[in-house]
Amino acid sequence: MTDELAIEATALAKSYGKTHVLAGVDLRVPRGSIFALLGPNGAGKTTTVRILSTLLRPDAGQARVAGFDIGHQRRQVRLSISLTGQYTAVDGLQTGAENLRMMARLAGMSRRQARQRAAWLLDRFGLTTAADKQAQTYSGGMRRRLDLAASLVGQPEVIFLDEPTTGLDPRSRQQMWQVIGDLAGAGVTIFLTTQYLEEADRVAHKVSVLDDGKVVAEGTPAQLKQRVAGERLDLVLRTAADFSKLARYLGDRVLRSDPGELTLGVATDGSSAQVRELLDELDPSRATLARFAVHTPTLDDVFLTLTGHAAPAADAKEKTRV
């Protein structure tokens, strides 16, 4: 493992009986980066996180986290990481400040150090004004920030976040994305699983797509989208007859066909000049097209192309064991 990598995994494998959950997973996560692991339900995301955080032993393969071997140096790994699950683990009957002071004391800090650390974290996560309120009175976004603050009490090198914004409203999600970005900017390595493709697109420096226990693609969000396709011009026809006529004319130039929506998609470079040229070619009379839109590839397209099905719905829950 090089000094530039916070996480390095090679050929990780895990099975439950005859069910193969991981079938040789390789991962490389640079220090101080935000890494997103994407995959449909049951792909093995949670199993991967549990193995890397030493909660589960792999059947085969090896990995190092924060420079330590997950098999032979489990204690050192655990001292170097933090793991935050989908659901907040804070005590609702304690105040925000009490939660953080308790975590600091459990981490071995003195009372004075615990107070100082709690005060710093409350300020860092914008919770100072709510410090003396019971956590059960916090909004979902505030509880999530308090949970993340608690995970930072011990100043970990690597943070594992399992679907960190599940259930949050759009504003709270934006706030969490800002916090995650700031943490990476301060040198903390973030390893997150997410079912929100927009989330990976917005915050991740690198993405790996996991399907059927294997990594099927990896790279930056932009690189993955470039692998799938260029931009596409979607054309909505006025009538079924217009749709059929244009489909015959385009032939194998059609990238997308939706008869129900009377929509045909053709390749474009996205420039205004080429879009105008295509519209003039395909609808010279200005009578057959109802509307059009330029479609930029998304991680949804990556999912569909690489796994053969759409990304998991936002409210889907991954099976507990995998």
What is the CA-based Rg, rounded?
A: 24 Å
Q: Which overall shape is indicated by the principal axes computed on the Cα atoms?
A: elongated
Element string (H = helix, E = strand): EEEHEEHEHHHEHEHEEHEHEEHEH
Distance N to C terminus: 27 Å
Beta strands, count: 14
The biggest sheet amounts to: 6 strands, mixed
The total domain count is 2
Oligomer: single chain
The CATH topology of the largest domain is given as Rossmann fold
Q: Uncertain runs with pLDDT below 50, 5 residues or more?
A: 314-322
What proportion strand?
A: 25-35%
Helix content: 25-40%
Can you tell me the CATH class of the largest domain? Alpha Beta
Strand adjacency order, main sheet: 6-7-8-3-9-10
What is the CATH architecture descriptor of the largest domain?
3-Layer(aba) Sandwich
How much is the average pLDDT? 85
Number of helices: 11
The CATH homologous superfamily of the largest domain corresponds to: P-loop containing nucleotide triphosphate hydrolases
Brief rundown of the structure:
With 322 residues, the protein is α/β, with parallel strands linked by helices. It has helices at residues 45-52, 74-80, 96-106, 111-124, 140-151, 170-185, 197-203, 221-228, 240-250, 272-282, 299-307, and strands spanning 5-16, 19-30, 34-38, 60-65, 68-69, 81-84, 158-162, 189-193, 206-211, 214-219, 231-237, 254-258, 263-268, 289-295.
